[in-house]
């Protein structure tokens, strides 16, 4: 999930629509409410945030520090105008990247992916046995052959892979894929998506790599 910090609903809504077409959930937060939100959000919900996008707003140089106290997710700023002094000031404030609008959401996703690879030492994909999962939205592969998946199932698989080695709950998966504030979708939809995903993986791999434990959640494993 991406958090968009901007006091202009039309801007936040426009980017939210673009991310939704890519299968990425977002939540828009007004800058005046951001300090209160980030101070109260739970650790579990915070782990569902993949990146923060900060638009042109007052005192935005203070936001990266607030974010870093709670999260290691990439922080990107979107500028309406070109200003070297402003860009340098934002980098000094701790942002990871500054982009001049207009910028396509696919470029934002690619930049976030690059930041994560540098930070985590990843090569843009994770291999678990015969399964190769790309972290930039591309289709996963089994033994070098693409495994087409619907957007939500692909996002769930990516989330499980990013959290490999630890168990994640249904709520954590839901927040990452659908967003913290989506009240129009029932959380139980996650079980349906994972059921379909497990059948497809088992058909191609010959076994089910997703281990589930009641009340504890899901974990992806290598046989």
How many individual β-strands? 11
Report the β-strand fraction as a percent range. 15-25%
Derived from helix and strand composition plus strand pairing, the structural class reads alpha/beta
H/E element string? EHEHHEHEHEHEEEEHHHEE
Structure annotation, total helices: 9
Q: How is the largest sheet built, in terms of strand order?
A: 2-1-3-4-5
Given this structure, which CATH class of the largest domain is correct? Alpha Beta
Helix amount: 40-55%
Give the terminus-to-terminus CA distance.
30 Å
- What is the gyration radius calculated from CA atoms? 18 Å
Low-confidence stretches: none
Quaternary structure type: single chain
Mean of residue pLDDT?
Answer: 87
CATH architecture type of the largest domain: 3-Layer(aba) Sandwich
State the fourth-level CATH superfamily of the largest domain: Response regulator
CATH topology of the largest domain, by name, is: Rossmann fold
Largest sheet: 5 strands, parallel
Q: What is the number of independent domains?
A: 2
Shape: globular
């Amino acid at each position: 999930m991406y958090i968009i910090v901007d006091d202009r609903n039309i801007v936040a809504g426009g980017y939210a629509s673009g991310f939704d077409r890519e299968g990425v959930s977002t939540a828009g937060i007004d800058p005046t409410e951001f300090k209160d939100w980030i101070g109260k959000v739970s650790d579990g919900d915070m782990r569902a945030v993949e990146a923060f996008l900060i638009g042109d707003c007052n005192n935005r140089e203070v936001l990266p520090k607030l974010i870093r106290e709670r999260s290691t997710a990439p922080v990107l700023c979107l500028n309406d105008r070109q200003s070297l002094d402003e860009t340098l000031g934002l980098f000094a404030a701790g942002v990871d990247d500054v982009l001049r609008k207009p910028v396509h959401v696919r470029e934002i996703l690619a930049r976030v992916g690059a930041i994560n690879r540098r930070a985590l030492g990843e090569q843009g994909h994770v291999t678990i046995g015969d399964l190769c999962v790309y972290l930039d939205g591309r289709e996963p592969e089994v033994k070098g052959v693409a495994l087409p998946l619907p957007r939500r199932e692909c996002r769930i698989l990516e989330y499980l892979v990013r959290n490999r080695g630890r168990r994640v709950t249904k709520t954590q998966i839901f927040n990452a894929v659908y967003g913290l504030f989506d009240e129009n979708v029932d959380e139980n939809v996650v079980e349906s998506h994972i059921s379909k995903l497990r059948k497809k993986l088992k058909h191609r791999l010959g076994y089910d790599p997703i281990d589930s434990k009641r009340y504890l959640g899901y974990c992806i494993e290598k046989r």
